[in-house]
Amino acid sequence: MSRLNDANLAVAKETIARYPRVKSALIPVLHLAQEQDGYVSTEAMAHIAELMGLTPAEVYGTASFYEMFKFEPVGRYCINVCTNISCQLVGGWELLEHAEEALGIKAGSTTPDQMFTLEDVECIAACTEAPALQVNYRYRNKVTPAQFDAMITALRAGELVDEFPPHGTLSRIRQGLPENWADTGRTAQAEVDAR
Amino acid sequence: MTDTPAYHVPGMVPTGPKLITGRFDQVDGFTYEGYVNTGGYTALRRALTEMTPAQVHDEVRTSEMQGRGGAGFPAGTKWGFLPAGVFPRYLVINGDESEPGTYKDRLLMERDPHQLIEGVLIAAYAIGAAQAFLYVRGEMALAQERLVLALKDAYANNLVGRNILGTDFSVDITLTWGAGAYIVGEETALIESLEGERGMPRLKPPYFPAAKGLYMQPTIVNNVETLANVPWIINHGGQEFHDIGAPTSTGMRIFAVSGHVNSPGVFEVPNGVTTFRMLFEAPEYCGGIRNGSSVKAFIPGGASAMWFFPEHLDMALDKPTVDQAGSMLGSGAIVVMDETTDMVAACWRIVRFFSRESCGKCTPCREGTTWLERILKRILDGHGRPEDLDTLLEVCESISPGIAWPPRQTTICPLGPSAVSPIASAVRKFRHEFEHYVQFGRPIEGVHQHAIHGSVAHV
Ligand SMILES: Cc1cc2nc3c(=O)[nH]c(=O)nc-3n(C[C@H](O)[C@H](O)[C@H](O)COP(=O)(O)O)c2cc1C
Ligand code: SF4
Ligand code: FES
């Protein structure tokens, strides 16, 4: 529940520089806030608004459209079980039911120890590997109940941290602003916008 | 066309011409070295040093490659829609893959990111783009990471950015990703999202992206698979591409075959192959239907498509044939349902998807998909009413008058009518299953009942 820290502020500025218009960087910068805190806090949104010359309402207006942004703390691990058609056909619901029993929560909620959030999600593009799930947006394919249990045990024991970084972390490598960045988009668009 | 060879990628039997999946099994296929050592970036060099942008465009036009994102519009023709002399223009790559059943763009991004980047650069050169934006689905962390790495290496090797390969051609590629919303895959919604807005489709006309797209400038939106084919076309020529597949749907195409088959998989096959061949004839692909069952129905092109039935197994999968039969190849997603499938449950699940993902901008879609979902769930829960079937069709009618294919739209984008496809298909063909549910509160004998629970909650 904080503003972007100094390191992330620098990343945010670099991100903004990669787009012809500032607001285009909004979704990536919101992801940055979620990576920092595990969710998108009100303070972070206010900071982002300030940084990008928007109102907090504009920031929230965009953010609230998108499923991935969470506005309250969620579990360290978000487990998303796909129940869409290809997964439903080969046991997606049964896997979700098992997950609910194993974690002791219903889909759409978080365990009391804030370790796991369970969700029933739409197709995650692993349809030939069904039933499939994601943990913090990393895949596990053709998951059996036994494999699910083993994964939970490992996560509770603090293992698999390389495979599943904390919620909010997507790419672990930053794009940065390359040395031979051409900046043609921003230059040309600025000319048009000035007219 | 049943004797056309089909090729299974990845993981199994790697034989035959692979235009774009050749590196899927290569351990280092995603690295810069792995790409360059297998002929990578030769097409870019050739395009920039030996060809004019118009010549590149001509090769793509000659190939008659149809877009692989859903609508199947020829890429070369689309590029030609850019208004002459209007700059800056942009190239937007649609990597939002989220049509249920579809699994190909993620593989192309994860396993061969440089091939995509090379295709993007060549396309940017051909159309004179000032900048390209690669929009990856938010939930695909590995694809994002691999593309970040690939792009860094490409910049470091003077393949992107200022004065590429020492020529006077300069272009940047910005990688960007969404945050979870199926509708953002629709090209004008994608552009809105790229402008930092809520991802809602724009009214068309006037906002055809080629004329007024990103920042209201001319913009080409192409699918990942479409652009991944471009390096091959430049290396081998548009005519050679045209010679592959069916004359009316050229080249190879990636299909993901999922559901009740013995070995589901992702295959790069020539356009015009039959479903029968992929399911049964070539054992290295799907190996038949599980438990010796047979096909009850299959979806040829993703959840938005009308369903097909056993009589369609022998149909060539090329665009005009499938269109004429009343469905679409869409995004190359074949979902197979065997005899044990509960058609009411299958229908409900797809409708629930569209009702969840409706952006809410048009009333028939927002309200209609919600009603459809509720009625189907009520039937599924054993509380169906005799009038429910008629109500379902009436609501379908209000979203998509005539319930025809292609749909006559009352909505801004095709998402609303897409929710009608599973209902029109299932009710037409399996009406008795719905009636049985309404009468007895349970499925007919012999179908599998899923452990579906009431929860549709989201955090
Ligand atoms: C609701 C909806 C969702 C779509 N989702 C995608 C998608 O995830 N990926 C994609 O490439 N195209 C998607 N499309 C199609 C795009 O609007 C667009 O036609 C396509 O990206 C153009 O690329 P192509 O010409 O190379 O096929 C979608 C269309 C609609 C109506
Ligand atoms: S049809 Fe549905 S998804 Fe498409 S614009 Fe209208 S409300 Fe949004
Ligand atoms: S339907 Fe589950 S991953 Fe596609």
Structure summarized in a few sentences:
Chain A is of the alpha+beta class. Helices cover 42% and strands 10% of the residues of chain A. In chain B, helix 2 (42-50) packs parallel to helix 6 (113-127), helix 5 (105-111) crosses helix 7 and helix 16 (388-399) packs antiparallel against helix 18 (420-440).
Q: Which structural class fits the helix and strand makeup of chain A?
A: alpha+beta
Shape of chain B: globular
Ligand inventory reads: flavin mononucleotide, iron/sulfur cluster, FE2/S2 (inorganic) cluster
- How far is the first residue's CA from the last residue's CA of chain B? 48 Å
Q: Counting H and I runs of at least 4 residues, what is the number of helices of chain A? A: 8
By DSSP, the count of extended strands of chain A is 5
* CATH-defined architecture of the largest domain in chain B: 3-Layer(aba) Sandwich
Distance between the termini of chain A: 41 Å
Element string of chain B (H = helix, E = strand): EHHHHEHHEHEHEHHHEEEEHEHEHHHHH
Number of strands of chain B: 11
**Major sheet attributes of chain A:** 5 strands, mixed
Describe the model.
The complex is a heterodimer of chains A (195) and B (459). In chain A, 42% of the residues lie in helices and 10% in strands. By secondary structure, chain A is an alpha+beta fold. Chain A folds into 2 domains: 1-73, Arc Repressor Mutant, subunit A; 77-156, Glutaredoxin, CATH 3.40.30.10. In chain A, strand 2 and strand 3 (116-121) form a beta hairpin. In chain A, helix 1 (6-16) packs antiparallel against helix 2 (26-37), helix 2 (26-37) runs antiparallel to helix 3 and helix 3 packs across helix 4 (56-63). Chain A starts with 5 loop residues before the first helix and ends with a helix. The model of chain A has no long low-confidence stretch (mean pLDDT 97). By secondary structure, chain B is α/β, with parallel strands linked by helices. Chain B folds into 3 domains: 19-241, 3-Layer(aba) Sandwich (Rossmann fold); 250-338, Ubiquitin-like (UB roll) (Roll), CATH 3.10.20; 343-440, de novo design (two linked rop proteins) (Up-down Bundle), CATH 1.20.1440. In chain B, 38% of the residues lie in helices and 12% in strands. Chain B has 18 helices and 11 strands. Chain B has helices at residues 32-36, 42-50, 53-63, 75-79, 105-111, 113-127, 141-156, 187-194, 224-228, 230-236, 238-242, 275-281, 319-324, 343-357, 363-380, 388-399, 415-418, 420-440; strands spanning 7-8, 90-95, 131-136, 172-177, 219-223, 245-246, 249-250, 252-259, 265-270, 295-299, 333-338. A 5-stranded mixed sheet of chain B has the order 1-9-8-11-10, covered by helices on one side. A 4-stranded parallel sheet of chain B has the order 4-3-2-5, with helices on both faces. In chain B, strands 6-7 form a two-stranded antiparallel sheet. In chain B, a hairpin with a 5-residue loop joins strand 8 (252-259) and strand 9 (265-270). The longest helix of chain B is centred in the C-terminal third of the chain and has 21 residues, at 420-440. The model of chain B is unreliable at 1-15 and 455-459 (pLDDT under 50). The chains are: A alpha+beta (195), B alpha/beta (459). The complex binds flavin mononucleotide, iron/sulfur cluster (SF4) and FE2/S2 (inorganic) cluster. Flavin mononucleotide (FMN) is lined by residues 67-71, 73, 75, 78, 94, 96-99, 183, 185-187, 221-223, 226, 413-415 of chain B.
